[in-house]
Write a structure and sequence with these properties.
Layout lengths: L23 H14 L7 E7 L5 E7 L2 E3 L2 E7 L3 H8 L2 E8 L4 E11 L2 H10 L2 H9 L9 H14 L11 E15 L7 E7 L5 E6 L2
Antiparallel strand pairs: 1-2, 1-5, 3-4, 4-7, 5-6, 6-7, 7-8, 8-9
Helix pairs in contact: 4-5
Amino acid sequence: MNLADLRREYSKSGLRRDDLDLDPIVQFQTWFAQALNAQLIEPSAITLATVDAQGRPSARIVLLKAVDERGFTFFTNYESRKGRELAANPQAALVCYWAELEREVLIAGEVKKVSREESAEYFAKRPRGSQLGAWVSKQSSVVHGRGDLERELAEVEARFANRDVELPPYWGGYVLNPSRVEFWQGRPNRLHDRFQYTRQPGGLWRIERLSP
């Protein structure tokens, strides 16, 4: 198979300026609700791109857990690669791609930790197995084998037997407050519809159509 020959046309829908809400958060919530209604697999899966102190980029998939007036919230291990990179440079980008709807959303802005209380509230809602896993995983560090993880899991299970699993001190949430959001809708002949929101002084947003 020749990768250069892989090709598809995008023809499900279009996007007009009049279709857009004045607030990109509201517009994202509308598109996300449509992704949920379409019963897509993992509609909350979103690519998080960060850079380290030397400007070297990295990216990975995280799960979006809240979208509100503050921005876009996700949770992770603060000592992971992404956590270390966000500590060195709090500017990041998110990319959400819903292939079945031929849609993409690009988001860029500053990232801050959420409060310890908010992290604890979300952590308490996680399945117990995920809570225990957060204690076991030293995310992004080298592990010699799966047996090491399973032994540590057994130790953590014994530690928290018959009681609630506590929030690890190194685990919690981040919220990305957007300064730029782009909505992309695939169109035929690669003449896609692209609209960019850019935050203006006073909190208003400028909306511009971009060339595909």
